[in-house]
Design a protein that fits this description.
Strand content of chain A: 15-25%
Helix content of chain A: 25-40%
Strand order of the largest sheet of chain B: 8-1-9
Largest sheet of chain A: 7 strands, mixed
Number of helices of chain A: 29
Strand order of the largest sheet of chain A: 7-6-18-17-16-8-9
Radius of gyration of chain B: 27 Å
Shape of chain A: globular
Structural class of chain B: mainly alpha
Number of strands of chain A: 28
Mean pLDDT of chain B: 90
Distance between the termini of chain A: 66 Å
Radius of gyration of chain A: 25 Å
Number of strands of chain B: 10
Order of helices and strands of chain B: HHEHEEHEEHEEHHEHEEHHHHHHHHH
Oligomer: heterodimer
Helix content of chain B: 40-55%
């Protein structure tokens, strides 16, 4: 230790001095940059505009962009500290190849040669489909577009999906079924202009805090929140519906029942723009308030009140997130939500929309331009016309375009366990923390002949299993565009050089194409993301997600622009889909679905008496590869916890801060701090899923939505024991008598 | 005092407040409508006569996102474990009528700032125009007394620097007409700066400065105005209610207080023996006591973040008990040195010098005890603390003198027994007081002592009974010889418990303990 410091002569005055930044004023001198770079936040899909302060080639500071229409200068705690992720100690800096069981540093040349060689050898031996690819919602759209072509046309496997299937696949499927296409119809501005805002399974106060200011800017709103847990968002509500887990379909059917019976529906809209109303009306007859009350646990009065408020709204905003999507009936629940919006005509108008609040910063980008659950530009595998269109645009034979979707994420995992998938490429995601029923996934990954993990971070629990680790540039180190939840395309800019030898995912994809000898065919003349953007514009032209009028310059100038923005558009304004009542279905009408309520798959019993709900906390992002390395966020949220109701804790003789194990038929999460609280209902417990150290996915279930393939993260049956208690026999056998 | 705010503004060529807001001026947002009614979050003028700035926190708006905490750390370049703004939680009600509210708090810029009043080096200044309580890192010596004095836990010690720091309401940003970092970062507009009339506030603060999860505003008259929800569940309490952790032991202070008390006790014993006519080995004993006293003072500087500036602690003797303690113990040491020399050299007036030494020592212990009588630390804030400190001196001093073979050892042992019995009684009463109290912090101290700290507490009792009562009552030289170290160990454990079992008043914290060290 420095002697001057020990004596007290040195108090690090320079380090702690202040200065005056020309743009943001008086602040800590170490945070004053040489210049500010405008960009978009890389965490969630709210899509906040920000400036990154760069000093001597390092990102030293982040500030909100006061002119950005999404966030008006505000950022959440993750965004405010995002520059720390760039210099996180766990950044992946060099390609690593497993040799004799250990990962050793290799050159890019060797890494990519090995990858292509192994992948091709696997495909030669076991068939093209033996290669699987799992990507993300974290790349820029240009990279998604490039990756889709590389995987489907270059490597020629259709077993390609994103971690977006763990996130908003249900919203995608639901939108496609109801409206004929993916694409959230509304805009954030609707939060300000709706007179009723109805949030189902969406805790925006914790998960999308910056959206709350749009709510606050709406003085005449009535906020209704349906959630089994009394979240901060629920506490903000004018009317809170504390429904039982997974009873939302019954609630929605019940509301439709009441609205039809009280005539609070838009008959003209229904007649002109929807099909299936007669069947729906007959179907919901049984969803009477008493029946719905019995399923949801809500009083009839509350159900009628909700119906009354929603039915009388001039413009109703119907928003949801993971409470709906993370379900074996996720896609169907979205359809039930769309039903409610459609029969009341709450779509395509200012303030009125069924709105999926998305998860990752560019989940929307992969939905539009990716090549996973659909063809780029919201085209369908099944449509010959769509395939031909694409083949023509790409100058490839139409036979190269797959006619059906390949395996979805959970099915790729299952195929890996069954040795049908032999090699896997994971891009920018960390399934060992995020995938349900972890042990099955581990078995799958360990069975693989070759696992490549391309990520900005190493070690992560997933890169540790890899045969090859490719270090990727992350947010702040590369250029491109993100699309946020409201279809706003925003520019992402490079602020600093990639860490170590890391390359942007875009450059990695191009280099791989080169090795595969398909670079000129797939990426003709491309050298930078803007080249991909230009091609993507032409591919999106005429589609719902029409980018053709956009340029990087225009996007930057306006702090993001919403699509559709066809060529020739002159005015930048808020856009909404389906304003003309025309839907991209065969008959141009939206479909109403009859959605039957069903109980969630794993019901609690005497041995596993609690329903475990999983979710997030405001300080962390997903599997904490980033936020776990940001000291201020780790300080504020250092560990996982389990919420349990006071009455349950009392009967189990548990005290606040006790350490407990959470046990399901599949596994055990050890040593979690107990939080005794009335936030959760008796019989339910809640745990955040961010923490690899106390991984909720040790106990969650392998149950997936048959339509969207999204996992059922939100309910599974568990029991809770003090961590030091002698372990009881909780194996399956003990309960199957 | 001058008007630094106006002067600075004029010197810098700044036209005050109205012409600034550079960020707002530039361009209108691109929305069809202006999405947020931009209510000014800072006053459009500076405070007039009898006015000052204050925070307004709107609990109904706060969503607990902690943007303010991150923005504050970024603004001030503080490492993660230091948070000049913190967000706590309070919770109550029954499912589904459950309520959790958040408390975001920086410094409350109190009308009677206890940090300022206690500071021995005058490192705190209350700005005469804005009322902002400012702290000077340059002046600070890192004694951390302000961190004990503030009921809200606002000043925080930065071990990297060796000085304390705290929220200054982003004084220099306000001067520039800009929002403080926390105010600016809040997506909900829950934090604002307002102007308050201080006289009026003195009359009405109790209604608006208090909130569940906050210590009483009476301690220092916080100026922060809090807007509470219309309806708060009656059982609402701090989310961290059940989480109690021992405080820092402050080892240099354990050593310093026990040794000063021992030294004073020994000198008093020597002086009394001298008055009773003893003469053998008085000089040796005095020299020994003097050395211990010196060690104590040296040890105390190890507690400081900036030991080289320890002398500055004399500065505020008119106001700060810490300054008075330093002054009195320094005088005591000087006088004890003279007394010891006079005993050693057989000089006249040594009885008078001894009397003065005893007086100064007693006064020193009193000042030392008064340091701990602060409302923000309830388990210290009692007369038991004064009695505890004197009993330590009365127990260890005679036993130490006896070990050095001064005068009537039996008499000294008996004095020790009386002091130990008194100490035992005091400690018992003190714990009973904790247990019987309705004060949350005292209850929490009792909980700590009966759980986490139960073993050291039992050890402390056993050592006291053995070293202070049982062994001195045995008529054996060997027993008497080991009585002193045993009793000494007892007092050291006792003092350790004194420091670690205090539960300070503080604002509500989150349920999960903050990681103490950053990742």
């Amino acid at each position: 230790m420095n002697l001057w410091r020990t004596l007290g002569l040195d108090i690090l005055s320079e380090k702690y001095s202040y200065g005056n930044d020309s743009q943001y004023g008086h602040t800590s001198a170490q945070k004053i940059p040489d210049h500010w770079v405008a960009t978009t936040c890389g965490y969630c899909s709210v899509g906040c505009g920000m400036f990154v302060g760069v000093k001597d080639g390092r990102a030293v500071s982040v500030r909100g962009n006061p002119h950005h229409p999404v966030n008006l200068g505000k950022l959440c705690p993750k965004g405010l500290s995002e520059h720390y992720t760039l210099e996180a100690p766990n950044r992946a800096k060099h390609p690593l190849l497993r040799k004799n069981g250990t990962l050793v540093q290799v050159s890019w040349e060797e890494a990519l040669d090995t990858m292509v060689e192994k992948f091709c050898a696997t495909q030669d031996r076991y068939g093209r489909e033996a290669l699987g690819v799992i990507s993300t919602g974290q790349l820029v759209t240009e990279e998604f577009y490039a990756l889709g072509k590389l995987v489907q046309l270059g490597f020629g496997t259709k077993n390609y999906d994103g971690n977006t299937t763990l996130c908003m696949a249900s919203a995608v499927s639901g939108y496609k079924r109801s409206f004929g296409s993916d694409g959230p119809p509304g805009a954030y501005e609707d939060l300000q202009k709706a007179d009723v805002i109805f949030l189902i399974g969406a805790n925006i106060a914790d998960n999308h805090p910056i959206l709350c200011q749009h709510l606050e800017a709406n003085p005449s709103k009535t906020l209704i929140v349906a959630d089994p847990r009394v979240t901060k968002t629920a506490m903000m509500a004018d009317l809170f519906l504390p429904l039982k887990p997974r009873s939302d379909i019954a609630l929605l059917n019940g509301l439709i029942h009441v609205l039809i019976n009280t005539g609070q529906i838009d008959c003209e809209y229904i007649a002109k723009h929807t099909t299936g109303f007669a069947e729906l009306a007959r179907f919901v007859e049984k969803y009477t308030p008493p029946y719905v009350s019995q399923i949801t646990g809500l009083s009839e009065d509350l159900i009628l009140k909700t119906a009354y408020l929603y039915g009388n709204a001039k413009a109703a905003f119907l928003g949801w997130t993971m409470g709906v999507n993370h379900s074996t009936q996720g896609a169907e629940t979205v359809n039930a939500i769309n039903n409610l919006a459609l029969i009341t005509g709450n779509i395509g108008r200012t303030g009125a929309t069924p709105f999926s609040i998305t998860g990752q910063c560019n989940a929307m980008g992969t939905r539009e331009a990716g090549f996973t659950s659909g063809l780029p530009g919201y085209r369908k595998f099944e449509s010959a016309q769509d395939r031909e269109e694409l083949a023509a645009l790409w100058h490839v034979p139409v036979e190269r375009i797959p006619t059906s979707r390949g395996l979805a994420y959970p099915d790729i995992v299952e195929a890996a366990v069954g040795k049908k998938i032999r090699a896997l490429w994971i891009v920018a995601t960390n399934p060992i923390v995020s995938f349900p029923n972890l042990d099955v996934l581990k078995q799958g990954l360990e069975t693989l002949d070759f696992l490549v993990v391309q990520d900005g971070f190493h070690p992560t629990p997933t890169t540790e299993l890899a045969h090859l680790v490719l270090p990727a540039a992350i947010w702040g180190e590369k250029e491109g565009t993100y699309t946020n939840s409201e279809r706003r395309v925003s520019k992402v800019n490079r602020t600093v050089d990639p860490a170590g030898e890391a390359k942007s995912d875009f450059d990695i994809f191009l280099a791989l194409a080169q090795k595969l000898n398909c670079r000129e065919e797939l990426f003709p003349g491309w050298s930078c993301p803007e080249d991909a953007f230009e091609e993507w514009k032409s591919v999106s032209k005429g589609r719902l997600c029409d980018y053709s009028g956009l340029t990087y310059e225009l996007i930057e100038q306006h702090n993001g622009i919403q699509w559709p923005f066809p060529e020739g558009t002159t005015e930048v304004a808020t856009t909404r889909l389906y304003s003309d009542g025309h839907f991209p279905t065969e008959d141009g009408k939206a479909k109403l679905f009859c959605i039957e309520w069903a109980p969630f798959p794993e019901q609690p019993n005497r041995q596993f008496p609690f329903v475990l709900n999983t979710g997030r906390t405001v300080e962390h992002w997903h599997t904490r590869t980033k936020t776990g390395q940001v000291p201020i966020l780790e300080r504020m949220s250092p560990n996982a916890w389990l919420e349990m109701n006071t009455r349950d804790a009392h009967s189990l003789h548990l005290k606040p801060h006790d350490r407990v194990d959470v046990i399901s038929r599949r596994g055990r999460v050890r040593d979690v701090e107990l939080r005794i609280t009335e936030i959760v209902a008796p019989g339910q417990v809640f745990m955040p899923f961010h923490f690899a150290e106390s991984n909720a996915n040790q106990v969650t279930q392998s149950a997936f939505d048959p339509i969207s393939r999204e996992p059922n993260y939100k309910q599974c049956a568990v029991c809770v024991q003090p961590s030091n208690a002698p372990s009881r026999d909780t194996s399956e056998k003990a309960y199957v008598r | 005092m001058d008007l630094p705010l106006i002067e600075r503004a004029e010197n810098d060529g700044v036209t005050f407040f109205l012409s600034h807001a550079k960020l707002q001026v530039a361009q209108q947002p691109l929305y069809e409508i202006s999405p947020l009614p931009v209510a000014p979050r800072i006053p459009q003028r500076f405070p007039g006569h009898g006015e000052q700035y204050r925070f307004h926190f709107d609990m109904t708006q706060c969503i607990g996102c902690k943007c303010c905490v991150v923005a504050c750390n970024e603004q001030n370049g503080n490492p993660a474990p230091i948070n000049w703004r913190r967000v706590g939680e309070i919770e109550g009600g029954w499912y589904p009528d459950t309520h959790r509210f958040y408390l975001s708090m920086g410094c409350n810029h109190c009308l009677e700032p206890s940090c300022l009043i206690g500071c021995p080096v005058d490192a705190y200044q209350r700005d005469s125009v804005t009322g902002i309580v400012q702290h000077s890192a340059e002046a600070c010596i890192g004694c951390q007394y302000c961190t004990w004095n503030c009921s809200y836990g606002v000043p925080q010690y930065n071990p990297e620097r060796g000085v304390v720091g705290k929220c200054d309401m982003c004084y220099d940003r306000l001067v520039d007409g800009r929002e403080p970092a926390c105010v600016n970062a809040c997506p909900q507009g829950a934090i604002q700066i307002e102007i308050v009339n201080t006289d009026q506030w003195r009359q009405e603060y109790s209604g608006s400065a208090n909130a569940p999860g906050l210590p009483s505003a009476d301690d220092s008259i916080s100026t922060t105005r809090i807007t509470l929800p219309a309806r708060l569940p009656p059982d609402i309490k701090k989310a961290d209610f059940w989480r109690v952790r021992p405080e820092a032991p402050h080892w240099p202070l354990v050593v310093m207080t026990v040794l000063t008390q021992l030294s004073v006790g020994a000198f008093v014993a020597i002086w009394l023996l001298q008055l009773l006519g003893a003469s053998a080995r008085l000089g040796v004993a005095a020299a020994g006591s003097l050395i211990l006293g010196g060690l104590a003072l040296a040890s105390s500087t190890a507690h400081l973040g900036r030991p080289i500036h320890a002398y500055r602690a004399l500065k505020m003797w008119r106001r700060s008990w810490l300054s008075r303690e330093v002054l009195l113990f320094a005088s005591f040491s000087g006088m004890a040195g003279l007394y010891a020399s006079s005993l050693w050299l057989g000089l006249p007036f040594s009885r008078a010098l001894g009397g003065l030494t005893a007086m100064l020592g007693g006064a020193g212990i009193t000042a030392s005890a008064f340091i701990y009588l602060v409302p923000a630390r309830p388990s210290w804030n009692s007369k038991f603390t004064i009695a505890d400190f004197f009993c330590t001196g009365a127990l260890l001093g005679p036993l130490f003198a006896a070990n050095l073979g001064v005068g009537d050892e039996r008499l000294l042992m008996l004095i020790g027994v009386v002091a130990a019995s008194a100490q035992f009684l005091i400690q018992t009463l003190r714990i009973l007081r904790l247990m019987a109290s309705e004060c949350l912090e005292l209850q929490a101290s009792a909980r700590l002592l009966s759980t986490t700290l139960a073993r050291p507490l039992l050890l402390r009792g056993a050592l006291l009974l053995a070293g202070g009562i049982a062994l001195p009552l045995v008529s054996s030289r060997i027993a008497w010889l080991i009585a002193f170290p045993t009793a000494m160990a007892g007092e050291i454990v006792g003092r350790y418990l004194f420091y670690v079992s205090v539960v300070p008043k503080n604002i509500a914290a989150p349920y999960l303990a903050n990681a103490r060290e950053a990742a």
